[in-house]
Predict the structure of Lipoprotein.
Amino acid sequence: MNRKLVAASAAAMLLLTACTGNPEREAAQKASNDQQKKYEKAVPFPAGDLSYPLDRKNVAEYLKRSNDPNRVSYVYLLSKDAKVIAYYTIKGKVTSVSSQLLPQDDLADSTCGSCTEKYVVDSAGDDGTYGGNEEGVFFFTTDGTLITWTGDYLQSDRPQDVRTPVSLVAKVG
């Protein structure tokens, strides 16, 4: 089970028991804590015992490359049958249209007897509206053109040897 999910569940249960002192909730909290301890002792944890955590190295390199604003890479937009329909040289990275600069949730207060509890409410998005965005990604070409795409794509540090003809050609200029 995901350790973050267990930790979040434990924190939520602790918050609920803090004001009420309900014995059933306290028992549930203890059971959750006991289960968390079992997970922490399970193999292959703790992660500190790994002699060479390759996944951490890979993620660090990915983040380093992805967050270089001058990075040039190549994006191939794919049709549903995996044919390349467009090809772009881009500067920067491919970004989800669902990415936000501000948090998507806020904490609000709720008074329960003598206690004040926090609960999560939706925040307005960066555009001032509520609710989700359309699916997809966007990126900027090396000449500054914004491209938004809702299908599959391949991104690479180097041009790829495409064996299918590109069917969509962007007219630039």
Q: What stands out?
A: The helical segments are 3-20, 23-41, 54-66.
